[in-house]
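Hypothesis: this fold can be encoded by more than one sequence.
Test: take the structure tokens below, design a sequence, compare later.
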């Protein structure tokens, strides 16, 4: 069973660039997993994926030509059915052995053991291991079908289906071609390199020579990560030579690495007078349309130079550079035209046009939504004691840039262009900044809106969407969230928690509900939406690294002041570090369980009904702590409150050791329950500490 490197390659037409890294990893991983499952490869074997614009491939080290034979034990039948009392085989056993091709002479070797309540016969045989030649094509077919491809296509006269037409197939084990047929192609050892720089078809001498052959003769860097790293190294080196920086470029780098096989970086430039256009427009034009990397000065200001990642490396690159400069110029001219044209009409004059823009067929027009945002932003700023006039003005203008030429061409710039146009109209920085920031946070880790006015408009935008879509039954399900409600919920929670803002979430939801006509919202909103928000909050806190038990303890109280949650989590974490924490959490769990069994809510404890020294001591200590605890809660010092409560540990332990809570005398029993209820109220104002008890 000689071991050798295995090579599998599919040579295709250009693959979808944004999916390429994922396709390459999935293809390699599945082939490796299938070979391991057949004992043809080890789980720790070196598995190297390759993904370039026109190929998916993998090499796996030390793959076996065939797997070792293995023992397989199977149950035949109960002994009572198979054998006579003297061990002679009965007819059912002989018939089964004949069907399985087992020689009756093997009967004495059969194992007899209990199977449940009856003794049974078991037969152990040697099963040949899998052969690489026999299974490799099947394994590759399984990997192809398992790829995360939303749509497949057919080509030519065959029945093969893949994301792009496939032209060649390599299946090699060491120097040997493994016979097989995948996607209507027979396996060989020939591939193609770069479309223009390769010497033509390339015969791969052996699997280990695959990468070096493509690099040297095919002018292709086949490994995606290495190709990406090479592009990044060239970009950063050229940017340094230009005394410039690249700003954010990771997403574009991934895409470009999936578009080129032999990357070479060149510098292009455009006329400096284009810089009068907002740089976001120029950046988006270069990145999204042309896949160029803009350059910036030390202050982050756009320069009139950019980097081109070419798939060619001619001796004279002047044609590549001038060609790209010639292509980008009309794009920049379009951006300048849109900007100049849009500024001729103030944002305020565009608002009525939003009446013809449908927000949702059940929620009306964008103009109707603007009215709700204006009212809701005003209410939120009133709660914050902020500039209500500025918030209402920003909310009124926030969507007006949707009917500008620039945003019509580049939807990604909504909000950004609204800010520029508002400043052009003389609206003032506070209003203009709120227009741009009301979409934030757009994604995980995005910056939050700064200032109460911007935060209020951002909250209004997200709460209106959440209430509206929940109110018409468009609730996210599974992985489907077409209206981005999970993102909106996380945005609300982050703004409230991280800014922080002292606002009650349930009151905000109620304010948003009031903005809709009574007949519009046909489904319950407040309760399901708040449950949804708490689930999102739990997810957000787990992502931040908080312990699950501490999150559960804090969220068990269903807090509506989201800004208080981080402090409460910190207080619970500090409490858990105290030596008294475990015993108090267990006692609290016991108290909660006792109180659940009572028919009527306990009142206040009566000192005259206290009998045992232990209950009197607990009552006195709790009363003595109450003013200090009240001060802590008033000052939002949750950590100190829990530290003070930890001092009750000895009194609580003694109470449960010496006092019979469920006394026969009703008044005594009710009074002791009232004492426990008073203790539970104090202990669980920060979090449900019973959730910390295992």
């Amino acid at each position: 069973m000689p071991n050798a490197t295995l090579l599998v390659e599919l040579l295709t037409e250009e693959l979808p660039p944004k999916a390429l890294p994922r396709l390459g990893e999935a293809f390699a991983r599945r082939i490796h997993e299938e070979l391991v499952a057949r004992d043809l490869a080890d789980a720790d074997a070196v598995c190297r994926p390759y993904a370039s614009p026109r190929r998916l491939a993998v090499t796996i080290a030390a793959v076996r030509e065939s797997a070792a034979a293995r023992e397989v034990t199977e149950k035949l039948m109960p002994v009572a059915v198979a054998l006579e009392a003297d061990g002679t085989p009965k007819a059912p056993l002989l018939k089964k052995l004949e069907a399985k091709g087992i020689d009756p002479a093997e009967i004495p070797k059969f194992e007899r053991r209990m199977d449940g309540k009856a003794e049974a016969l078991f037969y152990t045989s040697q099963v040949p291991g899998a052969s690489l030649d026999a299974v490799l094509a099947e394994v590759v077919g399984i990997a192809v079908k398992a790829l995360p491809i939303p749509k497949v296509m057919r080509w030519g006269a065959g029945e093969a289906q893949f994301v792009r037409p496939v032209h060649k197939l390599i299946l090699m084990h060491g120097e040997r071609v493994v016979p097989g047929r995948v996607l209507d192609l027979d396996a060989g050892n020939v591939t193609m390199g770069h479309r223009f720089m390769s010497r033509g078809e390339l015969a791969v001498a052996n699997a280990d020579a695959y990468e070096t052959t493509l690099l040297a003769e095919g002018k292709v860097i086949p490994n995606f990560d290495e190709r990406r790293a090479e592009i990044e190294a060239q970009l950063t080196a050229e940017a340094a030579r230009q005394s410039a920086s690249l700003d954010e470029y990771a997403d574009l780098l991934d895409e470009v690495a999936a578009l080129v096989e032999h990357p070479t970086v060149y510098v292009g430039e455009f006329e400096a007078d284009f810089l009068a256009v907002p740089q976001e427009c120029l950046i988006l034009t270069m990145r999204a349309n042309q896949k160029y990397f803009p350059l910036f000065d030390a202050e982050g200001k756009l320069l009139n130079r950019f980097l081109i990642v070419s798939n060619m490396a001619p001796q004279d690159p002047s044609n590549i550079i001038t060609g790209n400069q010639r292509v980008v110029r009309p794009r920049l001219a379009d951006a300048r035209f849109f900007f100049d044209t849009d500024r001729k009409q103030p944002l305020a004059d565009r608002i009525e046009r939003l009446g013809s823009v449908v927000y949702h067929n059940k929620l009306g027009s964008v103009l109707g939504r603007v009215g709700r945002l204006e009212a809701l932003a005003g209410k939120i700023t009133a709660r914050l004691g902020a500039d209500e006039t500025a918030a209402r003005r920003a909310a009124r203008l926030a969507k007006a840039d949707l009917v500008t030429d620039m945003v019509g061409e580049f939807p990604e710039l909504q909000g950004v262009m609204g800010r520029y146009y508002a400043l052009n109209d003389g609206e003032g920085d506070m209003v203009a900044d709120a227009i741009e920031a009301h979409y934030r946070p757009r994604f995980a880790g995005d910056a939050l809106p700064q200032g109460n006015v911007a935060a209020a408009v951002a909250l209004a935008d997200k709460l209106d969407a959440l209430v509206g879509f929940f109110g018409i039954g468009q609730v996210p399900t599974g992985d489907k969230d077409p209206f981005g409600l999970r993102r909106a919920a996380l945005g609300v929670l982050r703004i409230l928690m991280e800014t922080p803002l002292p606002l009650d979430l349930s009151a905000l939801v109620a304010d948003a509900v009031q903005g809709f006509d009574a007949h519009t919202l046909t489904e319950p909103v407040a309760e399901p939406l708040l449950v949804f928000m708490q689930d999102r909050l739990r997810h957000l806190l787990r992502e931040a690294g908080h312990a699950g038990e501490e999150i559960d303890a804090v969220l068990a109280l269903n807090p509506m002041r989201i800004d208080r949650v981080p402090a409460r989590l910190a207080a619970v974490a500090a409490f858990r570090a105290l030596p008294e924490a475990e015993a108090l959490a267990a006692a609290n769990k016991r108290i909660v369980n006792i109180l659940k069994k009572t028919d009527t809510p306990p009142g206040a404890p009566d000192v005259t009904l206290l009998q045992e020294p232990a209950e009197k001591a607990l009552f006195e200590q709790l009363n003595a702590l109450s003013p200090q605890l009240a001060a802590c809660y008033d000052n939002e010092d949750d950590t100190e409150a829990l530290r003070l409560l930890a001092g009750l540990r000895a009194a609580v332990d003694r109470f449960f050791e010496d006092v019979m809570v469920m006394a026969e005398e009703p008044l005594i029993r009710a009074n002791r329950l009232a004492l426990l209820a008073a203790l539970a109220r104090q202990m669980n104002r920060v979090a449900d500490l019973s959730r910390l008890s295992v």
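The chain has a mean pLDDT of 94. DSSP finds 25 helices and 19 strands in the chain.
Hypothesis status: open.
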